[in-house]
User: Which sequence fits this backbone?
């Protein structure tokens, strides 16, 4: 495909629109991506998208952002990955930097319209899970894997539990599904060399090892910030909400932020679209102004870039392997269960606190799923509904 300015600009505009309208966290983002890139534009087939989601679940970091980066790479090379990420991340990052600098601590995060946006998140996530569940758990065996993953991740809530469930699901998938007759996957175009991939994984490991050492040997605030954000982005599995305990440990327990500053920023991060990892922009801006906000974004997302660049060139050969195909079937099923678990806690429990909240969610769900209203209309109606409930 000829990569010209027009194709890059198209990719940026599409990802920017998603970044402005994608409320609801990583599960909802995957639903928005599926609707835009698979169903509407047909840049990928269903199987390729499901496999890319599974790959992102295997890797540490923000899964939805890594899927977006991967789609950008498929469409327009390494630069396309950066452009896709920039469009999707820029709106929420800028909003949170501005919030930290201008209106921090005003009580805005308790406003009724923000609670309405949380209810919108419930609706969007529920819709996304239903769609993914139909595709990824079509038979009883995979429904059972999803159920077990749901129960285990609800009862034992930790990042380690999610990683363990995914690994066990992959092993079960190899045993149960490697002899299943598979469709031949459409070969996906990843214009990244294996040498570049090996360099990416080498840099990922080197930074993880040497940044703490350099931090200990210097007194630079900026190196300390970069180290803390990079380590948080490199060691988290399971999406945005899982990174919160790491960030709290790195910045509240060590005295960089107060508990109130942290919770205020978290409330604001819930109210903006795009990846929750952009919470790093708020923390960085509180600690070091707008420069700290930009540094936080670069540092916390850098591991996601390095890992997805390292994995993509080997992905075609891996996904054609019968054992890997079986493993992916198991992982895809487990991901559905994990997503339902994440939907209940914290999305549902932190958003639906009264019968009238549930009634608003039911109305918005009906308008989205059955009346086919555009997501941005649902967001607007949710904000208005939340404001009226608050009155």
Assistant:
């Amino acid at each position: 495909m000829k990569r010209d300015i027009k194709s890059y600009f198209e990719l940026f505009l599409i990802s920017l629109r998603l970044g402005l309208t994608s409320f609801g966290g990583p599960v909802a983002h995957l639903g928005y991506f599926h609707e835009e890139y698979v169903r509407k534009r047909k840049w990928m087939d269903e199987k390729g998208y499901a496999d890319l989601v599974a790959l992102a679940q295997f890797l540490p970091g923000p899964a939805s952002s890594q899927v977006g980066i991967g789609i950008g790479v498929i469409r327009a090379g390494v630069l396309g990955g950066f452009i896709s990420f920039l469009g999707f991340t820029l709106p929420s990052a800028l909003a949170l930097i501005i919030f930290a600098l201008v209106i921090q601590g005003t009580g805005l995060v308790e406003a009724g319209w923000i609670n309405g946006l949380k209810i919108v998140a419930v609706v969007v996530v529920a819709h996304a899970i239903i769609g993914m569940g139909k595709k990824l758990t079509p038979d009883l065996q995979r429904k059972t894997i999803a159920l077990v993953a749901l129960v285990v991740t609800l009862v034992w809530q930790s990042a380690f539990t999610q990683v363990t469930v995914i690994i066990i699901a992959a092993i079960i998938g190899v045993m149960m599904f490697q002899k299943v007759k598979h469709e031949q996957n459409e070969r996906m175009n990843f214009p990244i060399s294996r040498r570049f991939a090996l360099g990416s994984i080498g840099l990922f490991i080197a930074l993880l090892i040497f940044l703490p050492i350099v931090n200990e040997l210097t007194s630079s605030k900026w190196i300390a910030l970069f180290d803390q954000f990079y380590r948080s982005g490199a060691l988290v599995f399971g999406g945005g909400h899982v990174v919160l305990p790491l960030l709290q440990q790195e910045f509240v327990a060590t005295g960089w932020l107060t508990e109130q500053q942290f919770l205020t920023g978290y409330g604001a991060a819930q109210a903006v679209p795009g990846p929750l990892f952009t919470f790093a922009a708020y923390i960085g801006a509180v600690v070091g102004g707008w420069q700290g906000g930009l540094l936080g974004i670069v540092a916390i997302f850098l591991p996601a870039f390095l890992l997805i660049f390292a994995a993509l060139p080997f992905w075609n050969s891996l996904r054609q392997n019968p054992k890997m195909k079986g493993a992916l079937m198991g992982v895809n099923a487990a991901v559905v269960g994990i997503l339902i678990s994440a939907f209940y806690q914290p999305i549902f429990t932190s958003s639906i606190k009264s019968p009238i909240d549930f009634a608003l969610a039911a109305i918005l769900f009906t308008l989205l799923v059955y009346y086919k209203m555009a997501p941005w209309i649902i967001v607007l109606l949710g904000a208005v509904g939340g404001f009226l409930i608050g009155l």
The chain has 16 helices and no strands. The radius of gyration is 20 Å. Residues 160 and 374 are 37 Å apart (CA to CA).
